[in-house]
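# nightly structure sweep
# worker-07 picked up a monomer target from the shared queue
# config: single-sequence mode, recycle default, output format = structure tokens
# input follows
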Amino acid sequence: MSDSRISKRIAAIAESATLKVDTKAKALKAQGRPVISYAAGEPDFATPEHIVEAAVRAARDPKNHRYTPAVGLPELREAIVEKTKTDSGTEVDVSQVMVTNGGKHAVYTAFQVILNDGDEVLVPAPYWTTYPEAIKLAGGKQVDVFAGSDQDYKVTVEQLEAHYTSNTKALLMCSPSNPTGAVYSKSEMEAIGKWVASKENLWVVTDEIYQNLVYDGIRAYSITEVVPEIQDRTIMINGVAKSYAMTGWRVGWIISPPDAAKAAANLQSHLTSNVSNVSQRAAIEAITGDQEPVQQMLEAFDRRRKLAVSELNKIAGIVTPTPEGAFYVYPDVSGLFGREFGGRSFGSSLELADYVLDEAEVALVPGEAFGPSGYFRLSYALGDDQLLEGIQRLQKLFS
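# output follows
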């Protein structure tokens, strides 16, 4: 079949690297191989029972069997307004909130709404694999701003300024970060926010999906909380997937200034209409109901975070900064390059990841999926025993 049968725009989309690695790992498991996968970015816990029960009740109620407003159930949008005030320190009107089919849909919508062909987006790297494709689909151009392990994976105002041009339309922020777990401090976020304020008409798209997954008593500050004057050009993205173990329920949201909110609503009215009502009812319960299960998950993640960092840093040539949020560690493995293992030497994290999967039966996502080579992303959202065993396999392989 000729490639010309498929649109160039769609043919140019890259497959999700994280899902690709996870699919390969699952296929090997199905063959009976004892593969341990750190690839998937989702909690290993079941959705809390009270949320599931809310969905069961909703499924039995005929009012949820019909179309509802394309922008989301009023009750859920009101709950999101309150959550945004509490967790993001930002007051918004319900008219600015639109419920989406997960966080990816919200990211896609944000860039479709604000980008024209050729517009540049500053993207701190390492970055989540979906950002480049969402930007390209909107006709935009991604401009990477890289911060390595020596900066705890956080970019500076000086770096942003160095990459800023007359074509720069938006800055993307993700704190806590996927893939690194980095969290910008209040002062760091304030400095970036003030820099944005100094640039006329520069948008901010801030992905806060991991905002409630933070450790050591720190807070993930929203850019609009510390620099409120840029709220009228900030698009906020969030959802219930990560904090509530609801990745499969597909409920996210986007909060935009009024003109962008209207444009987003017009797009969604043609693209998807309303998100599943049952999932929306479950999301209402997640946001407004008992938060104790969230704390229990957070405690487990914190324990695993410390274990992963401690054990990975026992491997000579690997440097693992301690993440302050999300449920990932992002070790710098460039110190392994050029050394010989199993009669071979390696010059990229992509080559290393293939070697690790073949020889140690451990699935890792290489840094190439998130920006420059030289890194692995490991999700510690898996059982404690598997977490430790997989890293011990790495310790043995690279001894």
